[in-house]
Backbone:
DNA sequence: TACTTAGTGGGCTCAAATCCCACGACTCGA
DNA sequence: TCGAGTCGTGGGATTTGAGCCCACTAAGTA
């Protein structure tokens, strides 16, 4: 990964009548270092994340290759169901999207329901260091309430 | 930290119809030693704090840079979710602001609700030794009531 | 009193965010 | 096969808000 800076910042945005969302320049720029190709991922109900596609591929391939190696080595014989589920998730969890002019992207069918925001609704766009997250407002608040107290400890753990 | 003096003093200020707030000269001067760049932080509901950006960076960057270094070294591969959470919290907790002419700053969207003061409302600006705090009046009073009795003991502990 | 300085209000401008419309591809049913 | 409706895409028009600047006022000072 480039020794890039963390992607940080918090913004309010409205979703179009046609489910388009414009990403603020501060976040779009570091995200699209080399291409306007992005990966949209279902994180949890009420939250999607956006990744630079090359970073994402690197991250994903590493994991997938490990699993493949294990399968080939016969080390997942008894775990067929788990492997199936992994495949299923790989299929549905993420998708390529493009940033069009004005940094606009279309939130595809399937991701709309997951995000849970109707056309014309509001979302929060948040920099999450290595990616950008799109939050339904109430999910964001609930999550924040829960995690804010952990902040100090988290920095300690990760940096130690 | 520079062997600067403590930043002290208490002032009433009005927040503009446009959410502008002018920082008293006594507090703004020591805060802006070298630049008009400041960091605005969400401390607790009803209270924001303002930091000299170089001091703040020193305080935070130490930890953050460690995390960055670990990421670049590939040592947090399995901890993506934690890194994301850290970034998310970094994004929402603080933001750069600038002091314009007359030491006026704009309280950004997101911090307004947190402070809980509507346009045209009153706040207290308080020097807190190493930073400046902006308080909603009632939050300030509640806090004061609770902490005042501890003052004597605190001075003893910190100075001994 | 005249002058200076700090705090506040408000006008102007520019850029960004949002609104809105038009076009073309595609689907579906008659 | 054709027309109507839907959806993705592009781009112009409008609005909103942040930054800049100036004017007014009140308080402190010579």
Residues:
């Amino acid at each position: 990964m480039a020794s890039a800076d963390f992607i940080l910042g918090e913004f309010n945005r409205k979703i179009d009548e046609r489910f388009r969302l414009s990403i603020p320049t501060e976040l779009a720029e570091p995200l699209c270092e080399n291409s306007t190709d992005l990966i949209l991922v279902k994180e949890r109900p009420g939250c999607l994340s956006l990744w630079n596609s090359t970073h994402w591929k690197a991250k994903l391939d590493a994991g997938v290759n490990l699993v493949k190696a294990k399968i080939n080595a016969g080390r997942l014989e008894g775990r067929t169901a788990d492997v199936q589920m992994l495949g299923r998730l790989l299929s549905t969890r993420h998708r390529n999207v493009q940033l069009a002019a004005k940094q606009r992207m279309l939130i595809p069918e399937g991701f709309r329901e997951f995000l849970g925001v109707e056309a014309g609704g509001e979302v929060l766009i948040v920099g999450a260091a290595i990616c950008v997250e799109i939050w339904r407002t109430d999910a964001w608040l609930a999550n924040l309430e829960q995690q804010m107290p952990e902040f100090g400890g988290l920095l300690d753990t990760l940096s130690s």
